[in-house]
Design goal:
alpha+beta; 2 domains; 6-stranded antiparallel sheet; two-stranded antiparallel sheet; 8 strands; 19% strand
Length: 201
């Protein structure tokens, strides 16, 4: 028995291609919509169809230890909620700028000691970070858990934000990111060698 081929006219092929394009555009639109929901801190669906919860306001009270040497206790509940709300109202790029504006980057100074000892583990970290939040015109020094709690950040995002920023900018001192006021963020070296990010508005 001979196999009978399936013949498609030019019109059939065109309709098939249009259908594929339409499906691709719909999928791209859905991805963008879910990404926008995620960036806004709202519930969204992942590409694998998994329902993800939205961001919740920071917990009330001091989340770090009573022995924390930072100024976390000075941060009011009203200000924490305000910072959280403002953060998820702006686009992703401005969120990144907000995170960076609260960071101070410090170079890790390594001391020479038993460098050839195989039991000595040498850290590969080149920088450490200090965290700050604005309140009443003051720049409060806070611990990492408090900083993450206010903006409801994952550890992954907090780690990748400065790394991606430096790789894009080349660490030249002035960077093409923007703060919530749409002013360019600049960086400078502090008195102790730290890298500080701020808007010069």
């Amino acid at each position: 028995m001979e196999n009978q081929g399936v013949f498609m006219s030019a019109a059939d092929l065109k309709r098939g291609n249009l259908g594929k394009k339409r499906k691709r555009y719909v999928n791209e639109w859905k991805d963008k919509r879910q990404k926008a929901l995620r960036n806004a801190g709202k519930p969204y669906t992942s590409r694998k169809g998994v329902e993800k919860e939205g961001k919740t306001p920071p917990k009330k009270g001091k989340i770090c230890a009573d022995t924390c040497p930072k100024e976390c206790s000075k941060l009011t509940e009203r200000r924490k909620l305000q910072l959280f709300t403002e953060f998820y109202k702006v686009p992703y790029e401005q969120q990144q700028a907000i995170i960076l504006s609260g960071l101070e980057q410090h170079k890790v100074i390594r001391r020479r000691s038993r460098a050839r000892d195989p039991e000595v583990t040498v850290s590969k970290r080149n920088f450490t970070y200090r965290y700050h939040l604005q309140q009443g015109g003051q720049r409060l020094s806070v611990c990492k858990p408090t900083f993450m709690s206010v903006y409801q950040l994952t550890n992954s995002r907090l780690q990748t934000t400065p790394h991606s920023f430096f790789s894009d900018s080349g660490d030249k001192g002035t960077y093409p990111l923007f703060s919530t006021s749409a002013e360019p963020l600049h960086s400078y070296e502090g008195e102790c060698g730290e890298r500080i990010f701020e808007s010069r508005s």
